[in-house]
Amino acid sequence: MRINRLNDLYSSKKFNFWSGLVLIGVFLLSSCHDEKVTEPIADPSKPLELLDVSYGSFDRQKMDVFLPANRSTQNTRVLIWIHGGAWVDGDKSEFSGFKPWFEAVQSDYAYISLNYRLFDLVTGTNRFPNQEEDIQKALHFIQSKLKEWNVSEQVILAGGSAGGHLSLLHSYKNNNAGMVKLAVAIFPPTDLLTLGNGNNLIEFLLSRLVGDPQRDRERYLASSPINFIDAGSVPTAFFHGDQDDIVPIAQSFKLEEKLRENAVPKFFEYYPGQGHGFTERIYKEMIQKIEDFINQHL
Fold first, then answer.
1. pTM to 2 decimals?
2. What is the mean pLDDT of the chain?
3. Which of 36, 82, 28, 37 is nearest to 60 (CA)?
């Protein structure tokens, strides 16, 4: 069963070197075998899947778009998902595992799942902020398509782990046009300077991805979401397990503190005994709480 595989991947300690770098490690192959659609169909009364839509010239700059039947520019919210994988791995197909759970509690939503360029540890290509730039480019493309897709401007940006980091970073730092109305993050890195916290593997990854934390301190500051929170930041929901040994829960404590200092609307929950990945029951409960928070603020 795919869900069991998801939780096995999160909880397994028997990682090889590459998978040890993966913060989420959730790779679900889409079970959808519908024919790929390259041009939107005008009839908004019918559901539509647009797969591997390009938002840039690089191969990884693609997205999957799922438009509901009877969508409208007045009522159809848009939830954009950014996958995890330590910025070095992962795929937009990750959302296929979460999509049914969102659909179970949400109605009249369009869903978009993004790919972005991945950092290559061997060659050193696609260092940060390439990933940040791709999210900016993808969001700009999506904004240009909202009317054509016949969906609203109520956009929620969400993701887990590295995807949560990118969701928060864009929402606080690069949301100048106000496109993103609410942010959601699951066990997100929020302060890259303290993320490693003695974890040699994470510190090695960050040293290659971002740079030396002493020499390149400004790059770390510019890549950390908590440094861009102010009183105008979007409402934020976030979740973390207190046994997370990949992204320490202290990362969410820092986020909570900054949001509180700036009186930003927030909802958060910390799960005792949960690590870098939750049980199916908790994921489903969490998604219901996300929807309640969305309804409260949008």
1. 0.87
2. 90
3. 82
